[in-house]
Every structure is written in structure tokens, then in C-alpha cells.
């Protein structure tokens, strides 16, 4: 009798479980159908078509085609590796873009700094194609960062990096345009540097290649992404250089940094979360254009502003801040920087100077395509022959 009861109970449980599985399956199917009807990538394309066709005008069709095609990578060389990877890659036709610049393109004149607001207007009317290198202000770049790329039009892919005899990987594959904010940050010997939104760590690794940083604050609010960053650093950098006295990895909310550590860092990188345009067009998973992330997407400009303001507060007077994104969106780029300059002055009494990055666009114009005549900052725009970016960057210097 007891056995019969037990068997019935077991059968009922199996039936319940089957029902539950079927219900789950139906929900999954319904969800999949919604996604097919409104895939996030499709919503992203609709959004970009309506906004970027206005913002970029006749440039948009070619940028669009590039965004929808396979992107190009660069190989960030690991200066802590032991194999001669550079020679190996050069033998395959790559060049180190930061060092392989045309000498005539090197800017050499110092220019009187302009306070933010004044310089913005003088910046508007310049046509980059007419730039004369001799008229550009001097711009120092972070040293020792090497990034190998295949020539324009060459879409050869890099092989995955191999570990050397000490287990160190020879290079890190990343969008070569992402190296530009690190070069523009101009890290010099002994500088205290903060990377406010650092994970998964491509730019952190690029900044470490300078071998110049005194103390490095590396932060990202996401614990899982910071774990990934830690793994990346351990695969490329010798352990003693990652000791607590030299490098500190934290998972704070970066928007609060100004409350924690004001007026401290010589250089601050603020590489904010954004609509990550390329990812949004290519991947339905983890896509900010998904219907259920509309609120998060709308809040992005405010989050970006809060992060930039915190970065400005974290920098010391005289210190430099580099704001960067991987979106073409004016609202997430230019408008955020404009608002930050205004708020820093009005609410925090901090005067900022916009650092002219035109020398950088001039130096690297053979490798990247830059948006013409931006009123504030510079932007790499994807092109089928040089399919890097988008990367927007704007550099600010604290005067007070
Ligand atoms: C564009 S990604 C950074 C990419 C990174 N700099 C690199 O080169 O690999 C933006 C990062 O901001 C982080 N983030 C989002 N909100 C944040 C916050 N309030 N404080 C700090 N980090 C934040 C995200 O977790 C994400 O990893």
C-alpha cells in the first residue's frame, strides 16, 4: 500500500515537472518570437539611421556600411613579453601605427592655451584636410605604446597571441582606435593615474605599456568585469608590477569618486559606458537597445556626465582628463563634455581648458578616418578601408 502511494506521489511530481518544463518552453518561445519581431540590433539600426543620418549627413552611408561589416583589430604589443613579436608581425606586413607616422606630420608649435568656452568657438571652423602641421599646437603622447595594424584596405586577421616561456602573452587584440585615448592621455614618468571605468581592461593594459605610471588606480563598478580585467592583467604583466602599492583594483561607483579622492591624480581616463554602437548593431545579446533596457539607455548621458564630473574632481589642478566613448552619438559625446565643463565651473569652481587634439588626428590620418570639423573633441569614424572605431575622445586640463 505504502509503495503504491509513493509511486503515485512520484508520478504526480514527474507530471508537475513536465508541465513546468512545457510552460517554460512556451515562455521561451514567446520571448524568442518577440526578439525576432523586434531584434535589438534592428532597433539599433533604426535609431542610428534616424539620428546619424542627420548628424553625419553624407558621411553616414559609408560609416553605416563599415559598421555593418567586419571590424579591424590592432595588436597592442606587450612590452613585458619576451619574444620578438613585433618583428614577427612586421614580417607579415603590419606596422606600429604610433611610431610609424610621417615626419612632416609632426606638429611642433606651442599654442597659447584657451580656457574652455573660448576655445570651443575657435575650434569650429577648421577643416582638417587643410591643416598645416606647422600651425598646430604641440601635443605630447604617452610613450612606449605600440600597436600593430595591417595597412589600409588589408583585412588580414591576427592569430591569437601565444604565451612566451614565462606564460606572458605577446599582444592583446583590440580596436586600434581604442589606443588613441591612451596615447592622448600623455602619461609621463611617475604620474598618478586613474582609470575610472576600466573593465575589461584593454586601455588599462595599454596605459601599463608606458612603464611610467607611479601609482595606478583601476576601477570599474562591475565585479564580474573586474574579475576579467584582473585575468587580463595577470596574462600580460609580471606580478610584482601589479602589487598593491603600485596598482589598486576597485569596484566603486565611479560617479562618487569626487567624494572619495579629490584633487589627486595627474591623469584620469573616463572611458564611459555608452551605446557601444558596433556591438549594438551586431549582437542581440546584452544589447542596450533591447526593449527591456530602454530606461537604462535613456539614463546613459546623465551617468556619463556624472562619471566625467567625478573624473574631473579626482584630477589634481593642472591634471588632465580624457573622456572617451565608442559611440557616434552627439548626445553622449559633445553634449556631455559641454555640460561637464559648465557644471564643473558653476557648481565646483573648477576651470577647464580643452586640449586641442588636432595634432593627433593629423599624425594618424593615414591609419584612421576622423570626423571632420567637430566643435569639441575628435572622433574616429569607421570606414571600409580602415574599419576602426567609432571612438570619440575629448581632453580637458584642470586650470584650477
Ligand atoms: C566602455 S566600458 C570600459 C572599457 C574599458 N575602459 C576598456 O578599455 O576595456 C565602460 C565600463 O564602465 C563600467 N561602469 C558602468 N557604470 C559605472 C560606474 N558608475 N562606475 C564605474 N564604472 C562603471 C562598466 O562596467 C563598463 O565596464
UniProtKB/TrEMBL annotation:
The lineage of its organism: Eukaryota, Metazoa, Chordata, Craniata, Vertebrata. InterPro entries: MeTrfase_RsmB-F_NOP2_cat, MeTrfase_RsmB-F_NOP2_dom, RCMT, SAM-dependent_MTases_sf. Keywords: Methyltransferase, Mitochondrion, RNA-binding, rRNA processing, S-adenosyl-L-methionine, Transferase, Transit peptide. GO terms for biological process: rRNA methylation. Belongs to the class I-like SAM-binding methyltransferase superfamily. RsmB/NOP family. Its main location: mitochondrion. This is 5-cytosine rRNA methyltransferase NSUN4. S-adenosyl-L-methionine binds at residues 197-203, 220, 253, 271. PROSITE patterns: SAM_MT_RSMB_NOP. One of its GO terms (cellular component) is mitochondrial large ribosomal subunit. It comes from Champsocephalus gunnari. One of its GO terms (molecular function) is RNA methyltransferase activity. Residues 97-399 form the SAM-dependent MTase RsmB/NOP-type domain. It is found in: Mitochondrion. It catalyses: a cytidine in rRNA + S-adenosyl-L-methionine = a 5-methylcytidine in rRNA + S-adenosyl-L-homocysteine + H(+); a cytidine in mRNA + S-adenosyl-L-methionine = a 5-methylcytidine in mRNA + S-adenosyl-L-homocysteine + H(+). The keyword RNA-binding applies. The active site is at 326 (nucleophile). It comes from the Eukaryota.
